Amino acid sequence: MKRVFSVFSFLVIASMMLAACAPAAPAGAGTIKVAILAPLSGPVPTFGVSTRDGALMAIEEWNAKGGVLGQQIEAIVADSQCTADPAVNAANKVIDQDKVHYIIGEVCSSASIPVSEIAEQKGVVQISPTSTNPTVTLNPDGSTKKYIFRACFIDPFQGLVMAKFALGQGKKTAFIMFDKGNDYVLGLAEAFEAAFTAGGGSIVGKEAYTGQDTDFSSILTKVADSKADVLFIPDYYNIINLVATQAKERGVTSTLMGGDGWDSSDLDLAAAEGGFFSNHYSAEDTRTIVQDFVSRYEAKYGSKPDALATLGYDAANLLLAAIEKAGKDDPALVKDALASLSYDAVSGTITFDAQHNPIKSAAIMQVKDGKVTFAESIAP
Amino acid sequence: MNTSPIVLLIQKIIKKGWLGKTFLALITLLAIWQIIVALQANPSLFLQQVINGLQLGFVYALIALGYTMVYGIVRLINFAHGDVFMFGAFVSFYSITRFQLHTWPQWLFPSIPHGLGLIIGAITVMAISMIACALLAIVVERIAYKPLRSAPRISALITAIGISFFLEYFAALNFVFSPNFITYKRPVEVVTWAIGLNGITTLGNGKAPPDGTILFSNIALIIILTSVLLMFGLQFIVKKTRIGKAMRSVAYDKQTARLMGINTDAIISTTFAIGAALAGAAGMLYAIAFPQIFFWMGIIPGLKSFVAAVLGGIGSIPGAFIGALIMGQAEVLSAAYISTPLRDAIAFSILIVVLLVRPTGIFGEPEREKA
């Protein structure tokens, strides 16, 4: 798939180079342009709106403080539809026509990856707020793309955080259930296993299933027999609903734990009662930076910020802080500043690792009394 | 040429058609050995898995009966059967959530005992989804299958696949059942009993069962009882009533049956309706056991039940039942003792091996050539 994308994006770039020869207007003096690529239409428009609102709010706040490097920031919003070709078109437009040096976006990995190839080639700093696929920031040969960053943690990181949390709760034994065909689930399960055993816990059982399964009775009978403290199942809410319901009937007493795939209004809260899962952020987090952000966002947009709005806000802040640190509107300097930045963001204090993935704390959520509540914040 | 005795033996095995039998014997031995090992290691765990398999097998049985009936009479593999099953699950879901039909006895007779009221309510909901599925099957049969009755068999088969896709994607429309995973609301509360040597205790919510006990839930009981009752009902209809007699004669020879004054079209419609009603009941039972419904929930259970019907001998009612129980056990036990991702592969391999030995299935009779 990735090869198709890169071939396709190459063709698109080539055709754009031939077609878009009209001289573009010079960049407006006194402003720094930042592009926001977000899926405002297409399959996930609510993701795009949240991300854009969060990023725009950060930019307005910087402008109110006098901008960055004494210049006002001009935001250019483009609709990238969570899909490769509209995202590539939008990226080419903002880079070639609007002459931006910085891109915040895209939301979806499938759109961020082709955009990152253009941005890397043209020396434009891109920071994706929410794309979790490792190849967003990595070249096919495994080296890090120099100009590409992300504001969210990648999937396996959640497994690590949950293992740390489980050990902190005094859990000693864990049973892991995972979907063999799902990279997201596999990544979390492997990271959990490695971190849990490294921290002194033991894995008493590991069972794979497939995404089409509905009958988990045979696995859950084994889980009940193993009397594990934790049943780690980092799948999406639809599988959790089935597993959690059947687990209660099979006499499973283990605490259910998982990742942000649980985060859905369709999660069966009665069945998942007592379970824990990791998430990027919680509006109930008591840190002042979170509560200030939540109240400002609510005042501006009239609703509580979701994880996407928060990550959009963080991504914009990271970028602007890096420009200020670099001291010059030059993407080559800004990318180095970003790589060595330590920034106190809403979703945790962020520093970047060698692969340009943020190292920051995760929010642990608990299903309690039929509600999802914030339990604690875990630093890696 | 000097051939070694082993090669000669292999040649003899292939020539005499012993290959399938040898396979079957080996696999049976392996399975028996595995079961003995599992029983010795942890008898209660093994029995628990057998009960898990029974629960699954009885649901498959209800779907398999529909496949086998329709095949027995019109020689059509009705691939849309699994989607009728899905339809049944959704009808029961909406009867429960939107119309609260499972609570009608409490509304009409407030003094009725709670348990009895629930049972009557659940039976009502099941009857409604059975009737709805029967109507759906009659409509489908009239529109899609009847015009093709004299067409080659392959046309009807492809139409059945088309109907299956139509039902799935029609159900996925937002104003029909929506493409989302929906959590099913059970009409009865789950009660799990822990059965041990020291008697039966009711398992508390979130409590671990006492050691050495076997868990048995009221849901498994409901599924097994309903399936057995419906199968006996079906057997009664087919063997003892005039309609059943007509069905059997249509299955035997359609032309002659028509000459004897039997309305074959009506009989075929009835067959579809009865098969679909069973699928509707199965849909509700499946949703109670695994409480999540979505528009393609029928595909996999439908496919497995079809395999169960073939395994038991397609066209045979007891065959479908036995085949489904074997499929249920094969699936759960291979998940429990061999590998979960391999469980479908193992269950389907059993089909291949049985068909190598008996191409007509366990209870099947060789098809008569008709003029």
Oligomer: heterodimer
Top-tier CATH class of the largest domain in chain A: Alpha Beta
Count up the domains of chain B.
1
Calculate the mean pLDDT score of chain A and round it. 87
Q: Helical residue percent of chain A?
A: 40-55%
**Could you spell the SSE succession of chain B in H and E letters?**
HHHHHHHEEEEHHHHEHHH
Strand-pairing-aware structural class of chain B = mainly alpha
Count of discrete alpha- or pi-helical segments spanning 4 or more residues of chain B = 14
Distance between the termini of chain A: 32 Å
Strand tally of chain B, please? 5
Radius of gyration of chain A: 22 Å
Low-pLDDT runs of chain B: none
Going across the major beta sheet of chain A, what is the strand order?
Answer: 7-6-8-9-10-14-15
Shape of chain A: elongated
| Proportion in β-strands of chain B | under 5%
**How confident is the prediction overall: mean pLDDT of chain B?**
86
User: Span between N and C termini of chain B?
Assistant: 50 Å
Largest interface: A-B, 31 and 40 residues
The spatial strand order of the largest sheet of chain B comes to 3-2-4
The CATH architecture term of the largest domain in chain A is 3-Layer(aba) Sandwich
What is the ordering of alpha helices and beta strands of chain A? HEHEHEHEEHEHEHEHEEHHHEEEEE
